[in-house]
Amino acid sequence: MERLIIAVGLNENVTRDQNPNVPITPAEIAADVAECVEAGASIIHVHCRNPVTGEPIMDDSDSYLDLFRTVHAAVPEALVYPTYPNGEMVDRYKHVKALMEDPECGLAIAPIIAGSADLTPPLDYARTAPNGDWLLHMPLRDLFYQLELARDHGLFVSHDVMEPGGLRTVISLFRDGQYVHPILLKFFMSDRMGFGFPAEPRYLDVWAGLVPPDFDGEWLVLPYGVDYAESMALWRHAIEIRGHVRVGVGDSPAVVDGFLPTNAQRVEQMAAIAREIGREVATLADVRARFATALVPA
Q1: For the chain, N or C: smaller number of CB within 10 Å?
Q2: In total, how many domains does the chain have?
Q3: Is there a domain that residue 11 lies in?
Q4: Any idea which of 174-178, 181-185, 257-261 has the lowest mean pLDDT?
């Protein structure tokens, strides 16, 4: 796909102390989604949050149904998808299944983690944190369960890809006919966690080189908790080599040039780089056409 897909990590688990612009309530999230779409974003990832305390909500079905209904009512054309936690196969994905089954939510994307990964943070934090298990568990049985749900509901798959082995698994599943739509690969790169390749453009070339020519999908780079200057190098390189990007306060809430950015400002920045390089920015219609999705009525 020649046109640039700009995805957004809207809020993740970022606090207002880290960035006061992070959206928390369903109304704030819906308004932020609208601003990002207006700025040029075409895919948006959200975490449900407690509207009073701001605490993350990873898998409560009622909370996610309320959030997605609110977003879909405000911006029905938007392509928005949720997170899900570690845990047992059916329980960890129950809220995603509920979103798939509710037409008022407009879910078109199935989030599926492509294999287990080591999420160990810096050791000074890991040693003192109450959770000593930093492994993100994603056994093959969970992949098959989630892929079956995606097929049954006609959704396209967005894969979190943190390790080369995860990508090789996805390629095997693709050759096995497990997908009904093109696939979105999100290459996570971090300089603070234990998974994957270092957050440098030369290793983004390795990721891109692992994708076979006949693979039906698109890839983007997702610098997660990476220094802003290094993130910029990754985003620019991805745009130059005809990949795509994910930006957002949720992934990187830090101060940039003396101010705390909004999600829409991050999107506008990527759109400006694309124009400088000579690429157009993909519209929602472009992305829906590429991944063969239909707009679910509001």
Answers
A1: C
A2: 1
A3: yes
A4: 257-261
